[in-house]
Amino acid sequence: LLPLAEPHDEVRDFFYAHHNHFEPLDAEAERTAGLLELRPGRAADPLVALLAERHHVRVVQAAAGRTGDARRFAPETGLLFLSPWLSDGQRAFQLATQLALLEHGPLLTRLADGAAGLTSPQSPALARIGLANYFAGALLMPYTAFHTVAEEVRYDIELLSARFGVGFETVCHRLSTLQRTGRRGVPFSFLRVDRAGNISKRQSATDFHFSRLGGTCPLWTVYEAFSAPGRILTQVAEMPDGKKYFWIARTLTRGGFGHHAPRAEFAVALGCELRHAHRLVYAEGVALDDPRAATPIGLGCRICERRDCAQRARPPAGGRLAVDPDRRAYVPYPVESTGV
Fold first, then answer.
1. Alpha carbon of residue 275 to chain centroid
2. What is the CATH number of the domain that holds 120?
3. Is the model's pLDDT at 233 over the cut of 50?
4. Using an 8 Å Cβ cutoff, are 168 and 252 in contact?
5. Residue 205's domain is classified under what CATH number?
6. Which domain holds residue 291?
7. 38 and 109 together in one domain
8. Radius of gyration of the chain (CA)
9. Among candidates 251, 243, 331, 250, which has minimal Cα distance to 294?
10. Model confidence over 153-182: pLDDT tens digits?
11. Cα(first)–Cα(last) distance of the chain, in Å?
């Protein structure tokens, strides 16, 4: 029997099926941002006022050290507790998420409940949360303004982060959503991983196929990022089918303040097909047309067909293992030759 799909996996597939773009949410968020005249880095106060005026919600700062929640809403009292450790951008994002849940619940439900792939009882509720987060990003980075600036600065993530008052990861995620008809951005794929290779986020504006079996390719630059914390690394990567991609990757740390506060370290990566790389500031000085510049990678050893990879941790997909006690190859798991 096949194992039951996990809710988080179903929700990731739901976003993947939509190419990580939901025009109704973008349109509504852009309209709201215009009405509130939101300013980058100063969006929290108008959102606090709107929540109080329309929904009778009072925003209070949670006591330091009393909870591990970034945001907690108590419907019975109308109190919205926010962590005191949030940055201005994080605070605005949590306020915008709560606004989406309170003000656009029917739209979130309509988008989530109509998805055929959400079979688990928990999946639609998780999808609504994901859609509320999507709305929050779209509110703080309204589509037209964000797309315009992204093109102007050639997708410089740090400049976009400073311009819109949000974090590096939030900008990466937003860049992977810019697929509005008539105003498309670079079609990015986005992922977040830990040191063990676990993918905790994966979104794509294209049909890039992420590994669903765990254990992605160690030659991918997203893993090299852990050896250079805080630096932005680039890579031209070639897949087994010959398709080439341009990737950037950087580490980030999440967690509270203080010596005893729990922290988590991740690496995030943003990639696009090589034919779009010339539009990115990170491609300057990279020999995009030189075939020697490409690193051969795969989706993971379990399903990778490459037979000449010295980094291989499992036998290649397809082929019969060559078991020969009189031979020791440099490439792990050699397979029998199919030549005549």
1. 21
2. 1.10.10
3. yes
4. yes
5. 3.30.450
6. 186-306
7. yes
8. 22
9. 243
10. 999 999 999 999 999 999 999 999 999 999
11. 40
